[in-house]
Model the fold of this input.
Amino acid sequence: MTKAYPFEPEEAPPEYRGIPRIDPVLCIGCGACANACPPNAILRIDDPENGTRRIVLDVGRCIRCARCEEVCPTGAVRLTAEFEAATDDRSDHVEVVELRLARCRGCGKYTCYTERQVEKVLSLIPRGILDFDRVREKLPLCSECKLKLTVLNATKFGEVEP
Amino acid sequence: MIEEFEARFGPILEKRTLGEKKVLYTIMARPEDFQNMVRSLLAGQNVRLFTMVGTDERAVEDAFSITYWFADTSKGELLGVRLYVPEDRPVFPSVAQFHRGALWFEREVQDLLGVEAEGLPDRRRLILPDDWPEGVYPLREDFKYSESPPGEKKYPYARPPEGTSVHAIGPYHIALDEPAHFRLFVRGEEIVGVDYRGFYSHRGIEKLARGRLNYNQVCFIAERICGICGFCHSTAYAQAIEEAAGIEVPERAEYIRTLLLELERLHSHLLWVGVAAHLVGFDTAFMEVWRIRERVMWLAERLTGNRKTYGLVVVGGVRRDLLDYRRELVERELDVMKREFNDVVEFLLSSGGFVKRCEGVGVLSKEKARAWDACGPVARASGVDYDVRRDFPYAAYRDLSFEVPVEKEGDVLARATVRIEEVRQSISLIEQILDAMPGGGILADFGDIPEGAEGISAVEAPRGENVHYILAGDRNTIYRWRVKAATYNNLQTVPDMLVGYTIADAPLIIASIDPCYSCTERVQVVDIESGKSKVVRLGVGICR
Done:
């Protein structure tokens, strides 16, 4: 019965929830995984000065619940069949995906969402139903500019129909 | 229970109905009646102290609240008595003076909330670490979950009686799988007294749920309360939330939950039987039993994705369905297991060594079991006929038939017999579940959890009842989550079991309740980030 593990490979069954990995190509940096993660193994860290967002996954904190996989809108987070997390360097456990934050079209400051998130949203909008170009124009706006625009539109509305 | 209580005290109380046969009374007028109420409740033949919850309600009610929950096991009724304790004088009359089962609850509430029980027989610290400063109460709302205040290390251990010496087991000991510290006062070989100091593995889970988690994240953290009966904890938690929010769980989800709960009981009991065999020096049986247990672990992995932490329960249902191929796996494994288990039990019980070591050792009388509110196999081995699955049915247990094994002797052998019989019942339950598995969805749709809603739910874990209480906060968070694990009651009976036996019996007696220290201990706040250093030296403070 005794196996020669770790000298012979031990395979996990197909249902196994192993170590999660983030595909940096698919990740849009929305942070849904960070919101769902019970042990805070995934963090969303923004740097508004330099305009970057980092999604940091620390496998050392991960409890393999697979909530991140469930909530990911692009399928970027996937649980692998790997279970061996032993290492002599803690930094081996940390996986970082760094993305650019979108610049606001109004004031030029960095917004609180990434360029990829904007692309994703635009790709979801059905062509022909909405005025695509107007949406494209509005989309990367920071919350402050969005607020201003809303107020502006509201006043315009008031002029037309008192 | 509820009827009699209402007839006697009804008019002076405010009543809230939580569910069918679940009522909560709030004392508005006379707190001095509180002790009488508890006395009259506990005088009932089948009434036990279910759990006790202390909550910091200063934001809403300008007071702390203390709620004692009682269960009438013959009628399936739950009754809560809530007492508001003013902020400027946080004192309430102690129940532990006349009911020993309340002792730890009151010590805990004194530690964590700073609410004192007047007349408490043992006023020592229970939960907080030895170097926690006086007057800092971690479960109060104004205490941040990430704080870790420095203090001075001291703990008043009980004085050994005249003419005895101290034999310490733990905090780290070969016979214990988790840290716990038993100080045996021995005269020669004989144990004449015991002092217990535990709660070394607190992880601040209740405070975390309040400080950082949303209600669905808690399911996964709840599962990590215990390394053995984790699924029982997450189910009990989810059921409490479902009750508070009025969520109807799909039938299929309830059946899948039940299947896994029974699978968990199987592996836990097999683990215990193996450990018991190991502790009496019968390692062949230990290996054999654990080989069978491995089948259950493997099966759980195929069903849920992990050997132990199933991660399957979310509020409103379950996350994975029981597909046809999984069903076949269960059927195939059960067939083998039934045969192998019978063989190994015969092998074990035919060994004179095992039976002689267990027989007449660590006897817990029925009276003592009731006085400490023991539960699970420990209570059943002492003649207390109580099982949450039968008396407070949840999940799919209403539709299934099973027997509750009860023994009279109250010794280690009786506890073993109860567990062995329960394994057989579990196998039969799983077979029934597979036959009766209904179709349909596995996850319910629901809206927000109403603020201030309360829910209380119990699950029969392998060791006894796990009681979870929930008070919902605003924006889908939890205001108060109270976990009471089975070992919380059972561990308190251990000193009574040990007295009169020898040191050589101690590890087996302690193991016979199947203690789970992690389950019992949840609330200490430890922060690694703050850099607070603690030097742990073996032997310090153990013997003087």
